[in-house]
Specification:
This protein has about 150 residues and is an all-beta fold. About 0% of the residues lie in helices and about 55% in strands. It contains no helices and 14 strands. The strands form three sheets. Strands 5, 6, 7, 8, 9, 10, 11, 12, 13 and 14 form a ten-stranded antiparallel beta sheet that branches. Strand 7 and strand 8 (about 60-65) form a beta hairpin.
């Protein structure tokens, strides 16, 4: 990565940007943004938007997915993340949804395990219990807006 700066003498490259201090831990050593292609572990899916931003070893993704073709009891796994998660990392994120048959008091979250290039969706019950969201619980008009951040190597 190289950032371009305009200086009085012309255009040059900035190769050592430090934020909030002068130590090596403060060096911005990677920045990338782009799109990625979500896929389903079982069957196929349709997506409208899928973006990511990577700063250092932190990746943030956003996606809108719908129309999974599988209707089995398999868990909902979404694959194709732009970077695999770091070993030993696990995390959850935000999922806004509609038309999933999960109950009036339940909700949905996502989970990414360590060393993974996919994530899966879980039901969160009103009593705090959780379980894998399966394709059989999705209606034909379901829709998910997903956003989360994770560490990569």
């Amino acid at each position: 990565m190289a950032l371009t700066q305009i200086i009085n003498a012309g255009i040059g490259q900035v190769t050592d940007i430090k934020l909030g201090g002068s130590g090596s831990a403060n060096t911005l050593d990677d920045f990338e943004e782009g799109t990625w292609t979500p896929t389903s572990a079982y069957g196929s899916l349709t997506y409208n938007r899928a973006y990511y931003v990577k700063i250092g070893n932190m990746v943030t993704i956003w996606c809108q997915v719908y129309s999974f073709t599988d209707s089995s009891g398999n868990g909902v796994y979404i694959e194709g993340l732009p970077f695999a998660s770091a070993s030993g990392f696990a995390g959850t994120g935000v999922v806004m949804h509609q038309n999933a048959n999960i109950g009036n008091e339940d909700d949905i979250t996502m989970y990414i395990a360590g060393s993974a290039s996919n994530f899966r969706l879980f039901k969160i019950r009103a009593n705090g219990a959780w379980s894998t969201l399966t394709y059989s619980l999705l209606s034909s008009s379901h829709e998910f807006y997903i956003q989360f951040s994770y560490l990569t190597s």
